[in-house]
């Protein structure tokens, strides 16, 4: 059994988030004399800090300097620790004074911008349906990859006695 589908799915998701992160950062650029200019620089610093700490944890997990349990901890939890740490840095000290942009949050379970959840594609011009169709096909293929990755991980976990990981995977697969 290979993990090719897991690696391909991970590459696809990583590439999408990398592109989106660059897009979010570039949309924040304002003239240097405006009050939001320092917030843009702090956002860039935090993005680079996130990247560096992730790679640091990954590199530490592959060195012989730590016990194997510590290396496993770095490999498994380095990314979440980096995410929480850099998110918290935005609210710490002088970083907080620059007011870096954060994601807008609205009420729970509401569509953004006051629109409806369901897009009435039958009322759209056919060109917009044609433009959305390739993205829909890519998303459809992504669902197949997600299922294949879940099944691959399940097969790998069945060889071990990790019951909690098995239950977590079943809950993920069922949408709980």
Which structural traits does this protein have?
176 residues, mainly alpha, 6 helices, flat
Verbal overview:
The protein has a domain at 29-100. 68% of the residues lie in helices and 0% in strands. The protein contains six helices and no strands. The longest helix has 33 residues, at 126-158.
Care to give the gist of this entry?
With 176 residues, the protein is mostly helical. The chain has a domain at 29-100. It has helices at residues 4-27, 37-60, 68-89, 93-97, 126-158, 163-174.
How confident overall, as mean pLDDT?
Answer: 79
Which class of secondary structure composition applies to the elements? Answer: mainly alpha
How many beta strands in the DSSP annotation?
0
The coarse overall form would be flat
Assembly state: single chain
Order of secondary-structure elements: HHHHHH
Whole-angstrom Rg: 21 Å
Percentage of β-strand residues? under 5%
Query: Count of helical segments?
Result: 6
Helix content: 55-70%
Sheet with the most strands, sense and barrel status: none
Distance between the termini: 28 Å
Low-pLDDT stretches: none
């Amino acid at each position: 059994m290979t993990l090719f589908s897991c690696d391909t799915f991970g590459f696809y998701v990583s590439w999408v988030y990398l592109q989106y992160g660059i897009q979010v950062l570039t949309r924040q650029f304002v003239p240097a004399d405006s009050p939001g200019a320092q917030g843009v620089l702090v956002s860039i610093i935090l993005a680079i800090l996130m990247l560096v700490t992730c790679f640091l944890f990954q590199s530490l997990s592959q060195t012989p300097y730590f016990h194997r349990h510590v290396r496993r901890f770095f490999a498994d939890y380095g990314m979440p620790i980096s995410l929480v740490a850099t998110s918290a840095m935005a609210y710490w000290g002088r970083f907080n004074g620059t007011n870096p942009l954060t994601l807008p949050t609205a009420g729970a379970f509401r569509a953004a911008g006051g629109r409806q959840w369901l897009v009435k594609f039958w009322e759209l011009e056919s060109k917009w349906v044609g433009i959305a169709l390739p993205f829909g096909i890519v998303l459809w293929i992504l669902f197949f990859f997600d299922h294949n990755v879940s099944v691959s991980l399940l097969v790998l976990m069945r060889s071990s006695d990790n019951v909690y990981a098995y239950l977590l995977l079943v809950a993920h697969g069922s949408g709980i």
